Amino acid sequence: MRKNKITVIDSIVTLTFILKKQYMQHIAESELIINKRGAIYHLDARPEEIANTIITVGDPGRVKEVSKYFDKVEFERQHREFITHTGYIGKKRLTVVSTGIGPDNIDIVLNELDALVNINLETRKVKPILTSLNILRFGTSGSLQKEIHVDSFVAATHGLGLDNLMNFYRTENNEEEKQIIHAFKTHTQLTSGNISPYIYMGSPALLKHFVKDYYHGITVTCPGFYGPQGRVLRLGLAYPQLVDLLSTFHFGNHRISNFEMESSAIYGLGKSLGHHCISLNCIVANRIIKEFTKDGNKAVENLIKQSLNVIADADI
Prior knowledge:
five-stranded mixed beta barrel; alpha/beta; disordered N terminus; about 25% strand; Rossmann fold; two-stranded antiparallel sheet
């Protein structure tokens, strides 16, 4: 009994030492790049220029389609494909930032947003008190269930990645995540090839606000638009049954509702860094019944308006 107590105490002491070492460690200039105006490199944003509630959009042109509903815009920054607008709806401060397409861009945006609130850019040290951001993706997606028609909305319960991004980080899954990904690997047999799927759940605290008029389901993230999503142009597919395998997967009450190119990376990095994340997508294509939206711009506009109304009225 005494031995067990000593083991627990030793573990606490070791963890405390690791955390103190992390906070004391100076992050090198090559690892955390700060430009001449004191802004983080890719986003070209300073800590005071972002809010604690962040909306991400893939398309840089979509930033202004969100911020046009702000009552006031405080900051506008642009560097490469990363455009950032920060402002207010009523008294609620919001930031909308474009990520560009794909998990590699999400790796940049999520890490830099976290650095802006949790690393002192002057001392280059992790802050002793960490901040949790609310991060909401407004995106477009393809349905993998025949009844989830085009122009409808999906709020992702989980992000399931077919890319490799999160395999470069040391992270932990909860028991449900472990069970879902095990069942998914068994169902699809994708791990017999070169794919190593991963999964992370979204934030229950955010998901609860997006129930009415939003389907719920697992959103799969693919590392490309054509072959990785089962489209054939001139090259044949290594996984020709992928769409069928995704659409027929079930685990308890969970099923795969849609796929796109960013959500799993947002969920994986966000959850691992201590942020609250939700991915909201309008369906522009139904891959099961081969249907495509007649007006994608209107569909996105409806998602933006409805989701901003929820954010404005909720405790987010």
